[in-house]
Amino acid sequence: HRQVHEVQSYMGHLETSDKESVHLVENEIQARIDNIFSNLERLEILSSKEPPNKRQNAKLRVDQLKYDVQHLQTALRNFQQRRYLREQQERQREELLARTFTANDSATTIPMDETLQYNESLHGAHRGMDELIGSGTNILQGLRDQRVTLKGTHKKILDVANMLGLSNTVMRLIEKRAFQDKFLMLGGMAVTCVLMFLVVHYLT
């Protein structure tokens, strides 16, 4: 307990120590903590040799001491981490203030090549998508024109068939072929739409 209180008093000196002596205080605290841990190991052995009616109480007291020392160890490490960070910031600040920049200092240039290249790639992708959409629009328009042409052809064939007196069997064959052509046209439109969707989805 006396050693723990001594370490706690040393911990209070850390915040008030200057840069030159703070390392010495840290080393002294760490040495005392290591010594306490060594004594605690011996106390654990001794507590296990206590009579059964006192053993549990002795073990609890040793565990409490161990907890207090671990807390001191954590506090020391936290202080060291804050000090390291503070010293690093001070060094960076001093280096920045001591550095002189010239008009052509390469260290002051901003790396724009990767940004420009990425921007150009995006513009290229947008142009490719515009061309693809335009091509798909032209294909759909061509399919619509073919549908209109097929309708006109079918009507003309019916008129000619009526004029020539073709049989009902021939008329049914013509209508069946026109029906198949209609499904072929719709299937082609559907496949084209699916391809355009996949290209837009994966290229963007």
Automatic annotation (TrEMBL):
> Mind listing the GO biological process terms from this record?
intra-Golgi vesicle-mediated transport; protein transport; vesicle fusion
Note the Pfam families from the entry: V-SNARE_C
Q: Which GO terms describe its cellular component?
A: endoplasmic reticulum membrane; ER to Golgi transport vesicle membrane; Golgi apparatus; late endosome membrane; SNARE complex
Its membrane topology is listed as: Single-pass type IV membrane protein
- Keywords carried by this UniProt record: Acetylation, Coiled coil, Endoplasmic reticulum, Golgi apparatus, Membrane, Protein transport, Transmembrane, Transmembrane helix, Transport
Source domain of life is Eukaryota
Tell me one GO molecular function of this protein: SNARE binding
Q: Which residues cross the membrane?
A: 183-203
Query: Where found in the cell?
Result: Endoplasmic reticulum membrane; Golgi apparatus, cis-Golgi network membrane
Q: What does this protein do?
A: Involved in transport of proteins from the cis/medial-Golgi to the trans-Golgi network.
The similarity comment for this entry is: Belongs to the GOSR2 family.
The protein, known as:
Golgi SNAP receptor complex member 2
Q: Which organism is it from?
A: Calyptomena viridis (Lesser green broadbill)
User: Which gene carries the instructions for this protein?
Assistant: Gosr2
